[in-house]
Write a structure and sequence with these properties.
- The protein has 271 residues and is an all-alpha fold.
- It has one domain.
- 75% of the residues lie in helices and 0% in strands.
Length: 271
């Protein structure tokens, strides 16, 4: 079980990262008809019955994909969370990856808020950020050896200070938040990828979560190219596709070895 210090640190982490007021407006989404069509495209489809308008079709598909991504993100980390809760074990999972994912989604969320992009183009970042907070809590609960309370508190304060600093970045330097997401994404996943190769198995990694991550990255690459054209974000999603694809391949390649390793860990824990 978590100590009081651990619970307090986890609560502070959640408050620090999730209770940040949004500073962005979403005029593009607000101006949409039925939340899906631009006025011009609605006119083309509903009045002129022009269903061959390629630009409008791309815009509608992009917006529908955006909503699907956000909806899917509500359960993105759920398989991983349930797998850890069921096993009460985080064998094979790397703390650095957990922490860097918090930084990754925190910077992405704040960047999009500051840029004023439509929520439909980034809303999943805030949802996934919340789920990553839960995963950090579970990591603190079940990691062996126990992570000291002082280390947990230091992480909370560090995340809070980082978030505050991101909001204070002048407009001309806000692009750094998005570009920083690329190396952060690499740092978040490379340790796990290397750990998998070293161990010869993928531990408690959930294949469903990884596949959803990969699919979401591919879909978001398309919607970003269609709706904002932000080159830094496009590059970031390209890197994410490569890294997430590598993790999915590892799970498939090490499937048998992983089942064997988890069975041994469960047997050892029961003794």
């Amino acid at each position: 079980m978590l100590s009081l210090a651990g619970l307090g640190a986890a609560f502070a982490l959640a408050v620090a990262l999730l209770a940040i007021p949004s500073q962005a407006e979403t005029p593009k989404d607000d101006a949409l008809v039925l939340g899906l069509f631009t006025p011009a495209c609605f006119e083309a489809f509903a009045t002129q019955h022009d269903f061959t308008n390629v630009e409008c079709l791309k815009a509608v598909v992009s917006k529908a994909l955006s909503y699907a991504i956000i909806t899917g993100s509500l359960i993105l980390k759920l398989p991983q969370i349930l797998k850890i809760l069921g096993a009460k074990d985080v064998t094979g999972l790397t703390p650095t990856s957990f922490y860097m994912e918090v930084v990754l989604y925190l910077s992405s969320t704040i960047y999009n808020m500051l840029r004023g992009y439509p929520v439909s183009t980034w809303g999943e970042n805030l949802v996934i950020l919340a789920q990553n907070v839960v995963l950090v809590l579970l990591l603190w609960a079940f990691y062996v050896p126990k992570i000291p309370a002082t280390s947990r508190l230091g992480l909370v304060l560090g995340f809070a200070a980082l978030g505050a600093g991101m909001f204070a970045i002048p407009p001309e330097y806000q692009w750094l938040l998005a570009s920083a997401g690329i190396p952060v994404s690499i740092v978040a996943r490379i340790p796990q990828i290397l750990s998998n190769f070293k161990q010869g198995h993928t531990g408690q990694l959930a294949i469903i979560t990884l596949v959803l991550n990969l699919g979401g990255s591919i879909a978001r690459l398309f919607t970003t190219m269609q709706e904002t054209g932000d080159p830094v974000q496009i590059a970031g999603f390209g890197v994410a596709i490569l890294l997430n694809g590598t993790l999915v391949l590892q799970v498939l390649l090490f499937w048998g070895a992983t089942n064997k390793a988890l069975a041994q860990a469960s047997k050892k824990k029961a003794e």
